[in-house]
Amino acid sequence: MTCHSKWIRVDPVKGSRTFANLCWACILVRGATGFLLVGISSCIGKDLIPGLPPSEQIVFIPQGIVMCFYGIAGLFLGFYPWCTVFWNVGSGYNLFDKREGIFSIFRWGFPGRNRRICIQFTLKEVEAVGLEIREGLYPRRILYLRVRGRQNIPLTRIGEDLTLGEMEEEAAEPARFLRVSIEGF
Question: Which tens digit of pLDDT belongs to each residue from 151-166?
């Protein structure tokens, strides 16, 4: 939901708290837990996962140890997407303030000293709103600001799937507000 008035415009940016990331985190942790339980089952000689064939066929050395190793490694790998979802890394907003003459990008990062990422530019430095559209096997659609003397600043998430019409509308709104041109059509 975009919030704007005559002088101020705030565009929220979604972070990593998406359904896909949540699904991948669940799949990784569930699979890793299965590997770990099978490895532990082979060590103690009891079946810890009901419904599976008996783990008596798996010898603890070397197969059980390898299963435990994969389970522990998988839990560490599954912990990362859970953290990004919990902290909503990458979320934030883009603020355009005509009164102050500034454009601010605010994003949340990982916890620590640099958790809050805030970058400011003057609106005079903004030259255009651009669209980068690549079709094909790996389509890429990015809305960005072209700032004088700097790299292009993306305004949308990399994985955000928008139609061409939605991309045009997303580009037209800040371009109208900032009174700059649109490039990349």
Answer: 888 887 766 677 778 8
User: 55 and 41 in contact (C-beta within 8 Å)?
Assistant: yes
- pLDDT more than 90, % of the chain: 50
Do the beta carbons of residue 156 and residue 92 sit within 8 Å?
Answer: no
The pLDDT tens digits for 66-87 are 999 999 999 999 999 999 999 9
4-26 mean pLDDT? 90
Class of domain 3-12+90-183 as given by CATH: mainly beta
Can you tell me the distance from the alpha carbon of 39 to that of 64, in angstroms, rounded to the nearest whole number?
4
Q: Tell how far CA 129 is from the center of its chain.
A: 22
Do the beta carbons of residue 123 and residue 129 sit within 8 Å? Answer: no
Whether residue 111 is preceded by a cis peptide bond, meaning omega within 30 degrees of 0, is: no
As given in the structure block, the two tokens for residue 114 are 């640099």
Domain ranges (residues) in the chain: 3-12+90-183, 20-87
Interior/surface letters 4-28, b for 16+ CB within 10 angstroms, e for the rest = eeeeebbbebebbebeebeeebeeb
What span, in angstroms and rounded, lies between the C-alpha atoms of 31 and 171?
41
Structure-token pair, residue 70? 């994969």
Return the pLDDT at 132.
83
**pTM value > 0.85:** no
Asked if omega into 62 is within 30° of 0 (cis), the reply is yes
